[in-house]
Amino acid sequence: MESSGAQSCPATCLAFSRTRKGLVLIGEIVLCALTLVCFGASRTGYVGLAVVELVFAALVLLAWSCRLPQRMQLLHWGWSDFTRCVIGAVLFLIISLIVIISHNNGAGIAGGVFGLLAGILLGYDAYITFPLRQGHTAAPTESPEGA
Predict the structure, then answer these.
(1) How far is CA 33 from CA 38, 74, 83, 132, 139, in A?
(2) How far is CA 110 from CA 16, 51, 96, in A?
(3) Is residue 69 within 8 Å of 106, Cβ to Cβ?
(4) Max CA pair span of the chain
(5) Mean pLDDT confidence for 38-64
(6) How far apart are CA 61 and CA 66, in angstroms?
């Protein structure tokens, strides 16, 4: 045990996975994996989107779990995650609709449905991650002399 009060890495990861953001990221990983399996079984050719989003969601989950945004201030993590979510949501919705409309096999349709759910979840993640939605305190408008 550490006497400084800092949590160990597994404890920090477990604590983050119980937050709303952690649960959403875990849901994205699961839906991307299901979409990947279904798109792979149907041989649609849209596997790349599911793989990229799966990897990005896993990296973001790992970064937030290890409290990397507090340690590395160089990158604006809120806008980066928001951009990832918006691009993923739009692409998943478009690709899933194309697959559902054009394919008639069961695996392709199941992949399209899982892709639609992943797109909706990514849209929700973008909504809860939107940096301007986070509460900021206003800067004081008075002069330092108090006049």
Answers:
(1) 9, 31, 21, 31, 44
(2) 30, 17, 10
(3) no
(4) 74
(5) 88
(6) 9
User: Residue type for 90, please?
Assistant: V
Confidence of residue 22 (pLDDT cuts 50, 70, 90): confident
Round the CA-based radius of gyration of the chain to a whole number and report it: 19
pTM (global) more than 0.85: no
HEC readout, the chain: CCCCCCCCHHHHHHHHHCCHHHHHHHHHHHHHHHHHHHHHHHCCCCHHHHHHHHHHHHHHHHHHHCCHHHHCCCCCHHHHHHHHHHHHHHHHHHHHHHHHHHCCCHHHHHHHHHHHHHHHHHHHHHHHHCHHHCCCCCCCCCCCCCC
User: Distance between CA 107 and CA 36 in Å, rounded?
Assistant: 10
Written as one letter, the residue type at 71 is R
